[in-house]
Amino acid sequence: MSxxxxxxAVLLALLLATPEVIAAPVAFSATDPRHAWLHRLETQAFxxxxxxxxxxxMSQKTRxxxxxxxxxxxxxxxxxxxxxxxxxxxxxxxxxDQIDGKNPDALTRSNExxxxxxxxADAYPIAWMQGLSVKAYVQIALGDVPGGADTLAQxxxxxxxxxxxxxxxxxxxxxxxLRSNIAFSHAQALTRLGRNSEAVEAQKASMEARIAxxxxxxxxxxxxxxxxxxxxxxxxxDAEAEVYARLAVDKATDHVDRKHPSYARALEAxxxxxxxxxxxxxxxxxxxxxxxxxxxxxxxxxxYFQFGLQNLGSVLLPLERYAxxxxxxxxxxxxxxxxxxxxxxxxxxxxAFAASAELAEGQREQGIDRLEIALARVxxxxxxxxxxxxxxxxxxxxxxxxxGRTDRARTAATAFAxxxxxxxxxxxxxxxxxxxxxxxxxxxxxxxxxNARRLAGVVRDGATMNDNGELTEDQRAALDSLLAVAAxxxxxxxxxxxxxxxxGSRIAQANRLVAQRLVADPVLASRVRALQDKGKALxxxxxxxLKALAVDSGVAEARAARAAVAADVEAERAAIARAYPxxxxxxxxxxxxxxxxxxxxxxxxxxxxxxxAFDGVYLLAVSARGTRIERAKLDRAAMVALVNRLRLSLxxxxxxxxxxxxxxxQIFTPGILAALGKAPMxxxxxxxxxxxxxxxxxxxxxxxxVDRRTxxxxxxxxxxxxxxxxxDADKRTRIAARDQRFLGIGAPxxxxxxxxxxxxxxxxALLAANHYFRNGxxxxxxxxxxxxxxGSLNELQAVARRFGADHATLLVGADASEGGLKxxxxxxxxxxxxxxxxxxSGEMEGVTEPALVLSxxxxxNPDEDGLLTASxxxxxxxxADWVILSACNTAAGNDAQAAAxxxxxxxFRYAGAGSLLVSHWPVRDDAxxxxxxxxxxxxxxGLPRAVALQRAMLKLIRAKQDxxxxxxxxxxxxxMGR
Length: 978
Known about the structure:
Elements: H1 3-14, H2 36-49, H3 54-57, H4 60-75, E1 77-78, E2 81-82, H5 85-99, H6 103-117, H7 125-141, H8 145-165, H9 173-192, H10 196-214, H11 219-234, H12 238-255, H13 261-276, H14 280-297, H15 303-316, H16 322-340, H17 345-360, H18 364-380, H19 389-402, H20 406-422, H21 428-440, H22 445-464, H23 473-489, H24 492-510, H25 512-519, H26 522-551, H27 555-579, H28 581-586, H29 594-600, E3 605-612, E4 617-623, E5 626-631, H30 636-649, H31 657-667, H32 670-676, E6 681-686, H33 713-716, E7 718-721, E8 742-748, E9 773-774, E10 777-778, H34 780-784, H35 791-803, E11 808-813, H36 818-822, E12 831-835, E13 838-839, E14 851-853, E15 867-869, H37 870-874, E16 882-885, H38 904-910, E17 915-919, H39 925-940, H40 945-958, H41 967-970, E18 973-976
Parallel strand pairs: 3-6, 6-7, 8-11, 8-12, 12-16, 16-17
Antiparallel strand pairs: 1-2, 3-4, 4-5, 9-10, 13-14, 14-15, 17-18
Helix pairs in contact: 1-7, 1-9, 2-4, 4-5, 5-6, 5-7, 6-7, 7-8, 8-9, 9-10, 10-11, 11-12, 11-13, 12-13, 13-14, 14-15, 15-16, 16-17, 17-18, 17-19, 18-19, 19-20, 19-21, 19-23, 20-21, 21-22, 21-26, 22-23, 22-24, 22-26, 23-24, 26-27, 30-31, 35-39, 39-40
């Protein structure tokens, strides 16, 4: 490709207006021999412009050649008008201005050139389209995105007309490629304007033209496949997006050399798509492969490679894999700086990401230092680069406050507020965050309270707009700041607002597929879209109010407008909640009120929320006597490490007593215990790593030896764990028979005869659900690798014997299948027990979701794959008073950061189950039978269910069975509420 053609392609790919095109004068010919001397001047200019010597191509000598052509063509008249080569010369001069960064000059020259070319556009279509390219590009670069989009819309219309009136055999590949580039650029402009549905159509036209130009298997066409996938994803058409993203990978794998950039880019595009739709484990594989290929093929000295590192690090952050993300950002920072220089804005961005990971890991001083360096680089650059400061300030200011450097924090907060105000169309979130952080550095507690509540509302509304329920790192950092303010001011209502967003996000992530299944109802889908549209209007109203407050002008009007929009949103939300309560619950959308929460607690109950946010862990105690909000003395990283230590140390012979004791001391502080009062029953709302913490086994004081008298927390409290803050009593009518019939399902057949090593039920392996799915279905090979659970059959039989042969039904072996379960009338059973592998993934990669492993179908059946997934459970109708999930890891996710409790257990609640008894780890069969029966019997005698479980545990501790006093035996059980 010539240098000029290359520049044209680049401009067309970047451009994001065109005067009316006038038909060329009759009898005009671009090859008229009377104008041969002009053609010679054109050739001289093009030869210089197309030189392989870049310096020569952009030199004054080249400019002079174009200027000579322009002057000569202006003097040469065609039907009274300047010869069109005058326009061609100005268009190429405009292109040179644009490349040199002289955008105002480029806009002036492109407009003049297009005006000269307009009567002759059909005679010079390439020059005409290049002129439009330059004009649109500089329009957008100068901030006129709508103008650039309009230019491109007219350009696309012109190109469509040109294609329509040109015989097919006269359309060459270059023309189709030009058409593809124009449509691509139009799509990019529409995306920047938020017109995603229109952008999808433009990108589709680009893809189709690219196929016509280069064929369906070319590297260029592969790029259009993943470009189209990205547009579909922006338009919330995730399922279609995945089809084209996977098509790009398949085509690249089959037809493109792995050294070609399209190969790695296809992998990267699919990885990013999977990440954005909640399937991070699968996405990591693609992103890591893309980086490995880039490192091998193009090397590390390219922006292409550095952006790949940054993308991978950005996926690791929400997984809380900060230690893995930090070195990726630092490598990218060094690479950007090497390529772009010490003032590289991209290096500043990468450094800011690395610093945020360090803050989350508890490395405050190092994080502050890196953020200050990043900020200095931003301020040393142009105003265009200062938006990167929006990444720095929200992390730097709270870190400075925590470090006691209030003066520096105040200076940074003032700068943050000022720079945010200068942003064009600044969203409500940074405006609210800047206002809250600024007031945090002043003694004005009233302003701090008002701004904190406003930020909490903006974050909550923003979180509900995300179909996946995920919070961004910026949102999590903002919630951490809100919780720190709440602890500082003892504002428990603010803490509850922030914690409800954190808990709701975990619930929504874990129940994503359940919610999607519910939204398959077209009426609900329509109402959800209407609610989302109203939410966008509320975000705009929030932005207008925050701007008015910042300049102290038009506040009353903005506040009234915002109140009207908020009332409209709330009315729509309430109407959906009344008509579709299960959807609201699955989305984690219930909004607790502190006074209602207190009133809803029984006289013998208290509530404790334990939540990690960004770099801190926060504790909220609520009882009839009062409330208390605290931040744990240890940071989030240290607390999570303690939970992991404790979980990994648990064996039938003992556990890490130091870790358990430290966790108790950090959570059950004197202030928290005082707020909980003397309530004998405790509802615990944990998220993140703390959802996998067996609270019942925390010792209330140091002990030298574990025995029946060890002061476990279960002695002090009867504990119920719940994923959110709903506390209303379960008023559903029980449809199960009152004679407590029992159904046991488990000990399924193996998926294959592959050799595997049996393990005892005492193992503590964590099973990641994503490992057992491939492209939408169960992966029989991976499922065949699951270890046998020899104790599960004994457990089921032991419980069945307690109920008696006339009241017990067992589905074991081949009968423990999806078909066997569906054949049962589940409303006839009061107690249902599953004893099998539980595959729980809080991230739900692919169609992967929490599932129970049953027997594989005897014959190929599209409706059965041997996995009972959470969304399948949610569609069932269960009337049981009790559902017991005595399976491997049915309580927790596949790692400490997974959304525990919320998958399988929540799904059974949606299906109608009363109480859920689930296990943190595989349970010894005799212990499971004992606790299950004792708990059910106690509840039947009228005991509160948490008390029934408490007494069953204490009775087992006092039993004379081997190692019964060890927490590994009695502590895995939890009672789960809403």
